[in-house]
Amino acid sequence: MNLHRKGRAALVLAxxxxxxxxxxxxxxxxxxxxxxxxxxxxxxxxxxxxxxGLMALALIATLVLAGRDRTFALRVLAAYTIASLVLNYVHxxxxxxxxxxxxxxRLATWDPANWALVLLATSLPVGSIYFGSDLVAKxxxxxxxxxxxxxxxxxxxxxxxxxxxxxDLAVSTPAPITPNVTALPRAVxxxxxxxxxxxKPAGAIEQPTVPPVERRAIAAxxxxxxxxxxxxxxxxxxxxxxxxxxELLTEARKATAEWPDARLTAEGIRREVRTSPANARSxxxxxxxxxxxxxx
Length: 296
Fold this sequence. Notes:
There is one protein chain. This protein is mainly alpha-helical. Among the domains are: 2-140, no CATH class; 245-290, no CATH class. The chain has helices spanning 2-36, 41-64, 68-93, 111-140, 154-162, 245-255, 266-273, 277-290. 12% of the residues are buried. The radius of gyration is 55 Å and the shape is elongated. The longest helix has 35 residues, at 2-36. It is built from 8 helices and no strands.
């Protein structure tokens, strides 16, 4: 275990040394490029940290983030790697940049190429501010997904549970239910009745006689309310006297005097006069005839 840790530590240390030397080589080229686009001595010295430093930050973010955030960090790393490679390539093609004798703002002899290179060199610091802040915010708000340990011996545990005996189970077998047997009372003879059972010979074993049990039908109890039967008492009856057909017609005429023809129905007359449906239909026909309407 100790050898494994020492090997990993040696590998990380070697990687740091290689990256530091590569940064020193790239730092020389990026410093000269920054001086050519108008940066002063301090800005030219810090310019390599802006480009190559963001590359290191994006590399660390790819190791922490996951999903779309990791894809974004990889794209930033690739973009700044290509930009640093292009600027280092231009530094190797223009010897005047080494002695800083090149004209200010001139990185190529062809104007379109020069404009593109100057735009690239000047936009890298602004991009470092934007992309670096975004990567740091994503890393700070990242919530790592908890790693759940897989069940290695799932099949073995299932077989063990199946092979357990019934006595090891948490719930035991319920005890058998014994019926509650109640002895029925024997019938008692009332009065002096002459026995009709023939006499048995001597020495015969008398068998016990079991009286027959009388079965009676018991009506099932109903939960529905029973309807009242019999004659309705006088108190429960309505106090309104029974009206004659003429009285009903008079009341209907008064009640429907101001009704329109469309409202003159049997149901409306029945509710207004409070009579039976048959009387209401008869009153409707009479009233419609008096108004000269067609009888339905």
